[in-house]
Design goal:
single chain, about 210 residues, eight-stranded antiparallel beta barrel, two-stranded antiparallel ribbon, disordered N terminus
Length: about 210
């Protein structure tokens, strides 16, 4: 019995070390003017070059997420061929604290061309943790209006690993987005949609 107790204490300690408690100060860090983030996925690496001037608030948030290991065990949970590949960390224990600090709205400067990265949003000042890579020239996303907000400001582009992006599993399409129970339960999501590509981790590989 004593040995079992010690094992449980050890496991609890390991889990705590792997998941640092969210600190709102993380969401105040300003990104460099230009940086390259690498997403390490189950398909291979995707390198994304970010220019802060295109959408400073978005560039800052993506930088913060990468720096604080948010994308470890993340998922490309919505891949619609010819449209977008959307990703985040769907583990609510990790995601929900970041959602409490929203990214303020900005105008669209660079468009949603093929290979460009933007945050998803549902209304005013609603950007937080969900991003998408444009799989095509989605210029209508530059001017579409919803809930008082116009367009999705892109702030970076894929500069290496486009073959990885193109080969992300997309046969589930919009199905995962409509399955609310699975979307809010990472174990259920992985069980029901086992072919979804995962993000092993992310790192900043260049800063200027």
């Amino acid at each position: 019995m004593k040995n079992i107790f010690l094992i449980l204490i050890t496991l609890t300690s390991l889990i705590s070390c792997n998941h640092k408690k969210f600190d709102k100060a993380w969401a105040t860090k300003q990104a460099p003017n230009l940086y390259v983030a690498r997403l390490q996925t189950t398909k291979g690496n995707i390198d994304i070059e970010v220019e802060r001037k295109l959408s400073p608030n978005a560039a800052d948030r993506f930088y913060q997420l990468v720096k604080h290991d948010f994308f470890v065990n993340g998922t490309f949970y919505r891949v619609v061929p010819g449209f977008v590949a959307q990703f985040s960390n769907t583990d609510t224990l990790i995601a929900n604290p970041w959602k409490t600090v929203k990214v303020l709205d900005e105008p669209v400067i660079a468009g949603n061309n093929k290979g460009f990265l933007s945050f998803a949003r549902l209304g005013k000042n609603s950007r937080d943790i969900d991003l998408f890579i444009n799989l095509n020239n989605n210029n209508r996303l530059d001017t579409v209006s919803f809930e008082g907000v116009t367009g999705f400001p892109s702030f970076g582009k894929v500069i290496a690993g486009w073959n990885v992006v193109e080969n992300l599993y997309g046969d589930y399409g919009e199905q995962t987005m409509s399955d609310e129970a699975a979307f809010n339960d990472i174990k259920l999501l992985r069980s029901k949609y086992p072919k979804l590509e995962r993000i092993i981790g992310a790192t900043i590989i260049k800063e200027e």
